[in-house]
Amino acid sequence: MNPIIEFCISNLGMGGYEAMQKLEEDPDLDIVEYGCLDHCDLCAETLYALVNGEIVTGNSPDDLVKNIYQYIEENPMF
């Protein structure tokens, strides 16, 4: 089972799309985008994604990608 990375479509428009594109290149991740993830305050302030249901943020697309991989490494699924 791969880690699931969820993106809000509104956050993708704020710069998260670049991060999502980079993560989609990894066949060991499952990437999903939704119309809304119900974190509107966070969405308006920073880039974020849900990683296995937990919020991970970043100040830039590269920072978000780095933080997502760090979260996955520190929180293995098994």
TrEMBL record:
Protein name: UPF0349 protein ACFSCZ_18435
Originating organism: Siminovitchia sediminis
InterPro entries: DUF1450, UPF0349
Annotated family: Belongs to the UPF0349 family.
Highest taxon listed in the record's lineage: Bacteria
Transmembrane segments: none
